[in-house]
C-alpha cells in the first residue's frame, strides 16, 4: 500500500517531468556533515578568489532548515541545456549554457509552477525556490538525492546524459519519500584534470575556482592576469573544456526548451563580429541573456586580452 510520502513524491516527480525538468530527486533536509569540512578547507585556501559572497552564510549553505522554516525535504531538479547547434568555429568561445535566455528566469518560472502544483494538489506547503543565486550547495543535494555523482571536475555527472544541465531546488516543509545516492563512475579516468587549460582541477574532486577560466572571464572584475596570457584557448565567456572531454557527455542529448534556443546571430558570430560589437547590438542580441553578468565592457576586456597575445 502506498503511503502519503511515497504518493506525494511520485506526484511531484511526474509533474516536474511534465513541466520540462530532466529529472527530480528528493532528500531529507538537514545539516550536510560531509560537506562542512570540504567547504571550510576550500574557503581557507582562497579557492573562491574574489567571489567573497561564497564566504557569506556558511551555516545556511550547509543547513537548509536555516533557509526555510520547518524544512523537511530538498527537491532537487535538473534541466538540460545541451544544444543541438554550436558556434561557428572561427569565433571566441562561449559556454553552451549561455546560448539562450538566462537560465535563472527560465528555471524560476518552472519552480514557481511546480511549487504552485504542490500547494494546489497536496495542500498548505511552505517552500522556497533556489537557482544558484542563494546559499545552497546544489550539487551536494542533487548527489544526495541520487541524481548523479560529483565528478573529478566537481560537476554533477549522470551515466545517462552526462553533465550539461542546470541544478535547482525547492526546499519545502513537507515530508516525502527520500531517494538514495548513486555510486561514483569516474573510475581511473583523469580526462578533465589532464585537459583543463589553467590546471584549475588541483586534485581529483577539487577545483580551485580562482584558476578557472569561467572565473576569470565572468567573475573577476580586475584586469586578467598576464600569467594566463596563452591559456584561455579563446574562451571568452565561461569554459566547457572539462565537460567536453568527459566520456559520459557522449550521452548528452539536445534539450527541448524553447527559451534555451540560441539567437542565431550568436552562433554565426565570427571573431571580427565579436570585436566590432556595439552597445546597441549587444542589447538587442543579448536581451535577457547570461551575458548581462559581464556586460559589454567585460566581454571587451576578455576579447582585448586575446588580441594582445604575443
UniProtKB/TrEMBL annotation:
Keyword Transferase assigned: no
Enzyme class, broadest EC rank: oxidoreductase
Tell me the residue numbers annotated for binding cob(II)alamin. Answer: 61, 132, 153, 156, 167, 214, 239-240
Please tell me where [4Fe-4S] cluster 2 binds in this chain. Answer: 196, 212, 239, 242
What is the free-text note on the cofactor? Answer: Binds 2 [4Fe-4S] clusters per monomer.
Q: Where does tRNA bind?
A: 221
Binding-site residues, [4Fe-4S] cluster 1: 186, 189, 192, 246
Example of a GO biological process term: tRNA queuosine(34) biosynthetic process
Q: Which residues form the active site?
A: 132 (proton donor)
Record localization: Cytoplasm
Q: Where is the 4Fe-4S ferredoxin-type domain?
A: 174-206
Describe the reaction catalysed, as an equation: epoxyqueuosine(34) in tRNA + AH2 = queuosine(34) in tRNA + A + H2O
Which family is this sequence assigned to? Belongs to the QueG family.
Q: What is this protein called?
A: Epoxyqueuosine reductase
Print the organism lineage. Answer: Bacteria, Pseudomonadati, Bacteroidota, Flavobacteriia, Flavobacteriales
Amino acid at each position: 500500500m502506498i503511503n502519503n510520502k511515497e504518493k506525494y513524491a511520485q506526484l511531484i516527480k511526474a509533474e516536474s517531468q511534465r513541466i520540462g525538468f530532466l529529472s527530480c530527486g528528493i532528500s531529507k533536509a538537514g545539516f550536510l556533515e560531509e560537506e562542512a569540512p570540504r567547504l571550510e578547507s576550500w574557503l581557507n585556501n582562497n579557492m573562491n578568489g574574489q567571489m567573497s559572497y561564497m564566504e557569506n552564510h556558511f551555516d545556511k549553505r550547509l543547513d537548509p532548515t536555516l533557509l526555510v522554516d520547518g524544512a523537511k525535504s530538498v527537491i532537487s531538479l535538473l534541466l538540460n541545456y545541451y544544444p543541438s547547434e554550436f558556434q561557428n568555429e572561427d569565433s571566441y568561445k562561449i559556454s553552451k549554457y549561455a546560448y539562450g535566455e538566462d537560465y535563472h528566469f527560465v528555471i524560476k518560472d518552472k519552480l514557481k509552477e511546480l511549487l504552485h502544483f504542490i500547494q494546489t494538489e497536496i495542500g498548505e506547503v511552505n517552500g522556497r525556490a533556489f537557482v544558484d543565486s542563494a546559499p545552497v550547495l546544489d550539487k551536494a543535494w542533487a548527489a544526495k538525492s541520487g541524481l548523479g555523482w560529483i565528478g573529478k571536475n566537481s560537476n554533477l555527472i549522470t551515466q545517462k546524459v552526462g553533465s550539461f544541465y542546470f541544478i535547482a531546488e525547492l526546499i519545502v516543509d513537507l515530508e516525502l519519500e527520500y531517494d538514495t545516492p548513486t555510486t561514483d563512475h569516474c573510475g581511473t579516468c583523469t580526462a578533465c584534470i589532464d585537459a583543463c587549460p589553467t590546471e584549475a582541477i588541483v586534485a581529483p574532486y577539487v577545483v580551485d575556482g580562482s584558476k578557472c577560466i569561467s572565473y576569470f572571464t565572468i567573475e573577476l572584475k580586475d584586469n586578467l592576469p598576464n600569467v594566463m596570457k596563452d591559456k584561455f584557448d579563446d574562451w571568452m565567456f565561461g569554459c566547457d573544456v572539462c565537460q567536453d572531454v568527459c566520456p559520459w557527455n557522449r550521452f548528452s542529448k539536445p534539450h527541448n526548451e524553447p527559451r534555451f534556443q540560441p539567437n542565431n546571430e550568436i552562433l554565426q558570430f565570427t571573431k571580427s563580429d565579436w570585436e566590432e560589437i556595439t552597445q546597441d547590438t549587444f542589447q538587442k542580441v543579448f536581451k535577457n541573456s547570461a551575458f548581462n553578468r559581464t556586460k559589454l565592457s567585460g566581454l571587451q576586456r576578455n576579447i582585448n586580452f586575446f588580441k594582445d597575445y604575443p
